[in-house]
Amino acid sequence: MATKNTTIRDVAREAKVSVASVSRVLNGTGGVTPETQRIVREVAARLHYVPDNAARSLITGRTHTIGAVLPDLYGEFFSELIRGIDLAARARGLHLLVSSSHDGVDAAAAAVRAMRGRVDGMLILSEHVDEKFLEENLPASLPAVLLDSPVKSTRFPVLNIDSRAGALAMVQHLIEKGRQNVAFIAGPKSNFDAQQRDKGYRAAMAKHAPDAPLNIVAGDFSEESGYRAGRELLAQKKRPNAVFAANDMMAVGCLYAFKEAGVDVPGDIALAGFDDILIARYVTPPLSTVQVRIADLGRIALERLAALLDPTDTTPASVQTLGCDIVVRETCGGNASAAPAPRKPKRPPST
């Protein structure tokens, strides 16, 4: 029966392993079989054993906590990203500390600095982060993995979405379905993913509809900006016959503007987004989009960071790019289907 005085020795006795094995499991230092890890965690949970984290940190020099700095905590993309990170962290006995940096570079710097000494490593997704920012705000001893970043560094692994290829594939699909006049709702100018999706749109138009004019309206990744962009497109003298939004939230806002004006989607205007957030499947009509496996992005980022925490890991920092698929639903006039976006040639690891 569990008591408030349960010790690590009680866990070791119940699990029929050594105290050292229990310590290795709970500290995440490795050297223990998966079966032993499972038994130790089950016994520790049953006995309600709570390690003395302060004492453990003094001994191991680790907090067993990972920090994540994100642009925002609002919306389906970030909740799904956090879910992927957290599931992977908990599987390794790690806790997650999350902060946002949506108020600008000073907020991002404050968030990073506030985590120093509290976390063993960090995942950073912020448009404000460059080499100078990292040098000024991140101690050399603190491992970090960057997400959706243009930074190329010998110190920091980077995990990106292949936004350019995904955007190119979706616009190409729209054009091949007879929609030559494709408009683009852009994301924030300083956002790396938005920049890559802009490049993909331009490349697809140049290759597959060279005689059609570019039609780009501003957005900021929010539903409201998508709604405003939709109204702006409807006010044009020559309306587009397809719209590609740089994310699903803007596409949903645009869809509402079209419905409000009595525009038939896809009959009058086809519509597509990017990310494949959950709501994309349940709007009417269901939204065509570029599918990003958001939870997998979080999981892979955490796994890469966990590897950095292993002192025996010698994997060099590199830029890893995750591919994405186009998902054709009714806003493009099709039934649900998925096809891989064309992959760019793999970039060699940074050295």
TrEMBL record:
The HTH lacI-type domain, residue ranges: 6-60
Swiss-Prot/TrEMBL keywords: DNA-binding, Repressor, Transcription, Transcription regulation
InterPro entries referenced in this protein's UniProt entry, alphabetically: HTH_LacI, LacI/GalR-like_sensor, Lambda_DNA-bd_dom_sf, Peripla_BP_I
Molecular functions per Gene Ontology: DNA-binding transcription factor activity; transcription cis-regulatory region binding
Presence of the UniProt keyword DNA-binding in the record: yes
Origin species: Dyella dinghuensis
PANTHER family, per database record: HTH-TYPE TRANSCRIPTIONAL REPRESSOR CYTR, LACI-RELATED TRANSCRIPTIONAL REPRESSOR
Protein name (Swiss-Prot/TrEMBL): LacI family transcriptional regulator
Superkingdom of the organism of origin: Bacteria
A Pfam family it matches: Peripla_BP_3
